[in-house]
Design brief:
With about 170 residues, the protein is α+β, with helices and mostly antiparallel strands. The protein contains three helices and eight strands, in the order βαββββββααβ.
């Protein structure tokens, strides 16, 4: 039986793909914070705040989002780990309501890329639903993770397309 997702456990979902490009080539694309806009159901635009155009620990960018259910909102994202060409990770809000990131590993013929979305301890859009229907917590998180996994899969295909490289999903 699959374990139930619970917010208190800071659950995460990851998508993995092999991209036929070097880690340095993939790094240049995944650190472009605007790339996920095309693959996201909510993210509409991003902009670096400080320092400008700098994927480094402590760098801050804004994510402008919208959805039918929640309207429009902006999040402040802080880069928490940035080790070229291996790890790029950021926290959304403070305390983090979510964490996003990429991990790159060289493989024969290219790079294995893992993109991860993790619920953080901060309050997210799921929390009002979970408070109202606590017996459906796993269902709400599972639904959100299915949505994010599909978006991350599309994003990794976009990374490969930006490089003119083949992308092979890893199950």
């Amino acid at each position: 039986m699959t374990a139930e997702f619970r917010r208190v456990d800071l659950p995460l979902v990851s998508v993995v793909a092999d991209i036929a490009a070097t880690p340095e080539q993939v790094w240049a694309v995944v650190t472009d914070i605007a790339l996920p806009v095309a693959s996201s159901g909510e993210l509409r635009a991003v902009e670096w705040v400080a320092p400008a155009d700098s994927p480094a620990p402590g760098a801050v960018f804004l994510g402008h989002n919208s959805s039918e259910r929640m309207g429009e909102w902006t999040t402040t994202c802080t880069v928490v780990d940035c080790r070229a060409p291996q790890i790029f990770r950021w926290a959304v809000q403070e305390p983090p309501l979510a964490w996003w990131g990429y991990e790159l590993s060289p493989i024969d013929g290219g790079t294995r890329v893992t993109q991860t979305f993790q619920l953080g301890p901060g309050i997210s859009g799921l929390d009002p639903l979970i408070e109202r229907y606590p017996d459906r917590e796993h269902e709400f998180i599972s639904g959100r993770f299915a949505q994010k996994a599909a978006e991350m899969s599309a994003n990794l295909v976009a990374v490969g397309a930006a490089l003119g490289a083949d992308v092979t999903p890893v199950e």
